[in-house]
Amino acid sequence: MQTMWLSGAEWFAVLRIGLGLWWLESWRHKDKKTWFAGGGITWAAGIAAKHRWSAVRQGFDRCVKPRPRLMAYLVAYAELALGLGLILGALTPIALVAGAVLNLIYLVLMIHDWAEQGQNLMMALISVAALGAMSWQSWSLDAVWGLFL
């Protein structure tokens, strides 16, 4: 498909790169000292404790709460890896699926906060569209390496 300036595949690459920049900004704006000291997980624990769904409270208490330092590093560096992977187009389908899953986790945890929901829904939608359009076909290391053809 040809459009005014770029091909359809190139427009989806633009979308993929923009999503990668969004993930990179999510990582960049964290106060790393506070985050890695447990501030982010403590904040999320407060949200989970008041969550309307008991499965979310129980899941958080079982999986995240006992490992606050590990989870803080996992979340922060997952966002960094997603950002870099999508910008560079490296292992793009894996990054798109992982990003959509992370957005859905954030969405479920923050179900009562409409501002957060908008961002996470939009990012998940972009991930699904970029995955369906095989956005790694243009401007990506995956295309250079011949992966996911």
UniProtKB/TrEMBL annotation:
Keyword terms, alphabetized: Membrane, Transmembrane, Transmembrane helix
Transmembrane annotation, as ranges: 6-24, 94-114, 121-139
InterPro entries xref list: DoxX
Pfam families for this protein: DoxX
Membrane topology: Multi-pass membrane protein
Cellular localization per UniProt: Membrane
UniProt keyword Membrane present: yes
Main location class: membrane
Keyword Nucleotide-binding attributed: no
Protein name per its UniProtKB record: DoxX family membrane protein
Organism: Streptomyces caniferus
Organism taxonomic ancestry: Bacteria, Bacillati, Actinomycetota, Actinomycetes, Kitasatosporales
